[in-house]
Each structure stands twice: as C-alpha cells, then as structure tokens.
Amino acid sequence: MSEAQQQALFDRVSDALRRTEDDTRPIVLMTCGLAGSGKSTLAKAVTARLPNFTRLSVDEIIHSKHGVYGVDYPADMALYQAYMDEAGQIFDDLFATYLRDERRDLVLDRSFYAKEDRDDFRARVEALVGGSGGGGGGGGARVVLVFFRPTDKEVSWRRIVERKKESKTANNALEIDRQLFEMYWAGFEDPVGEGEIVIDVV
After folding, report:
1. Most buried pick, 72, 116, 120, 145, via CB within 10 A?
2. How many C-beta atoms surround the C-beta of residue 136 within 10 A?
3. pTM score of the predicted model
C-alpha cells in the first residue's frame, strides 16, 4: 500500500483517535476484519502518525520471540498454536499493564472476528480503568472499533492471494489456503450496532 493510501486510511479514523481537553481518557482502537483486509496497515499508520499509540499484535509477539512461520521455525500448526497461546498471554499482560498502569493509547491489531471476543475486550477495558462509556476526563477509556467490511468474497480472497506474493513477515507468514479462507469467511461475525467505524474493503 502506498504512502498516499496509508494516509487516506488514517484520515478515515484520525478524528476519533485524539484526546481532547474535555475528554482525556485513554483510547483503545480495536481493528476488526479478515486476514489481508488492512488491519495491520491501519495499526502501523496510526502509530507512525500518533506516537502516543502503542500497537499490540499477537503476530508481532510471536515474531519477536520465534521469528517467521515456515522460515525461522517449522510450518507446523500444532507448534504455531502453542506459540499463539504463549503470545496471547503476553498480549493480555501487556494490554493490562499499558492501559491500567500507564494509561497508554492502544491499537489492538487483531481480527476480533467474534462478537464475544469484542465484548470481552470492552469488558476488560471497563474492568481495568473503569467505565468506558460517556465523556469526561477521569476514569474509563474510549473504545474505537474499526471494521474492515468485505464488499465481495472474491475480492477478499484475491487480497490474500496477492499477499502471498510478498516477502514473508510477521503479519503474512501463516499460509491461508482456500479452505481456511472459507472457514474464516463463514465464521466471521460482522459488528452491527457496536459503534463501529466502517471501512469497505475493495
């Protein structure tokens, strides 16, 4: 994605990502979308332009500890799942520390494919720093949910296929074949009425 495209993506959400004198609560940006939809691109664009944000990514945690799937360690799903579990715990610990103790603004770079997962993290925000609703500058945090909405199934698949042609990184190393894509597609629970900012994936 070009710099201009990254800027355009950032511009879609930037107004929602700024603390004001009237509302000084920390901000938790949750990305939501299928693989290849633009979640990590947005997360990186935000942290590059708003250095007060810290990005948390399970993929990046795995990469920092073990390298790239299929390159630095075997392309073995059982091993990958073990690394996912390990990274998930680190993610949760950092999330709690950064938000509760340091009151950082955060980007949670993950799929949030299930409503239960989204609701769980909203509840965690509330438990860590108090109520997440309403205004004010005291307790609480403000959750911003950005949903990368697929406009066409084949467009989403094509984006994954194109990503396979790129050099493997922490964010694209896992091999997603058509069968796995179909499973992701069928199981994804679109956010509706959750205060989401919608970005159509084309």
Report:
1. 145
2. 12
3. 0.89
